[in-house]
Amino acid sequence: MKKLCLGIESTAHTFSVGILDFEGNIYSLINDVFIPEEGGLHPGLVREQHLNNFMKIINRALSEAKISIKEIDLIAFSQSPGLGPVLKIGAWVARMLSQLVDIPIVGVNHCIAHVEIGRLKCNIKDPLSLYVSGGNTIVSAFESERYQIFGETLDLAIGNMIDSFSRDAGLSHPGGPKIEKLALESKNYIPLPYVVKGMDLSFSGLYTSAKYLLQSKDYCKKYNLNDIAYSLQETAFGMLTEVTERALAHTEKKEVLLTGGVAANKRLQSMIEYISKEHDARFEVVPLRYAGDNGAMIGWVGILRYKAEGGHSISGTIINPKERMDQITIPWRS
Ligand code: AMP
Ligand code: MG
């Protein structure tokens, strides 16, 4: 019998359960996504939705995999980083299941999971990764036993910045795909703040300037929303590409991985593909089903860590909302 892991993702908007075997074959993946009616992610509201739906999601994942909970050998959950009240739901559910079924439990760093699912699904060994999502913007690579961070945002995450701007422009959540579509209709670049500090990025000034363009008297006269969408993407993605290229030149990795929900964006893909080619590196985008937050990636890292060093004790499963990916050693790659 193949050994099976049930992975639970619960860091932000998505409560997701993935079931996979210890070789990385995925049998089911079910997501429940919180979509705000207005404003951003209110942790209290997200927590309520996850709390109300977790059993339904687990049962659907089990039935899609055609197994019962008794056949699961390992529980993995996202232990860090994320919204505290939301992380707690996943941690509580995982602890309950682990004790009810009497099987080991492993806590997982969510950012590392985004990279590891890319290594699994794209069949690559040692990439430089650009992880771009609603809550994170990180350029990282494996060096000296850890996933080192070469560049990151100093303020807003790229996905959050685009979603916030699109909300201001009257578009519904999530804004990323809508801005991508509008941007295709323009070639009129309006200069916006391009802020790269050392290897880090800052998107707050860019966001504020784009928002001011919407409020200006010239809006809908000298330029329209397509032009702002185009300029916003060109500026933000240009910044991401610059930092990724410099990290690539420094690390001399031969593979580049684009992951996270924003990886769906074709313009960003083409920019990162371009610099990858310039440096003779293979370029891969994580398949979109696994690029956004999902329980399969959490399950996979749970399996990797469990095989390398066993499970966590229950007291070792306390959530860590601020943990960075470079704080953790990676025994399965050493
Ligand atoms: P995640 O946080 O990884 O689940 O990804 C969600 C984020 O991805 C949201 O901020 C979305 O707006 C963003 N996103 C999804 N599709 C696209 C796209 N085509 N272009 C830009 N951003 C996108
Ligand atoms: Mg994520």
Order of helices and strands: EEEHEHEHEEEHHEEHHEHEHH
Give the number of helices.
10
Shape: globular
Q: Using DSSP, what is the number of strands?
A: 12
- Which structural class do you get from the secondary structure elements? alpha/beta
Give the averaged pLDDT, no decimals. 97
Span of the ends, CA to CA: 28 Å
The CATH class name of the largest domain reads Alpha Beta
Helix content: 40-55%
Main beta sheet: 5 strands, mixed
Describe this entry's structure for a reader.
This protein is 43% helix and 20% strand. The protein is α/β, with parallel strands linked by helices and 334 residues long. It has 2 domains: 4-114 and 292-327, Nucleotidyltransferase, domain 5 (2-Layer Sandwich); 124-289, ATPase, nucleotide binding domain (Nucleotidyltransferase, domain 5, 2-Layer Sandwich). Strand 7 and strand 8 form a beta hairpin. The longest helix has 27 residues, at 225-251. Residues 110, 114, 133, 136, 260, 293 line the site of magnesium ion.
Topology (elements, then pairings):
Layout (H helix, E strand, L loop, with lengths): L3 E6 L4 E8 L4 E8 L9 H23 L8 E7 L3 H18 L3 E5 H12 L6 E5 L4 E7 L2 E7 L5 H11 L7 H8 L12 E2 L2 E2 L2 H12 L9 H27 L3 E5 L6 H13 L3 E4 L2 H4 L3 H15 L25
Helix pairs in contact: 1-2, 3-10, 4-6, 5-7, 6-7, 7-8
The protein binds adenosine monophosphate (AMP) and magnesium ion.
The site of adenosine monophosphate has 19 residues, from helix 4 and helix 5.
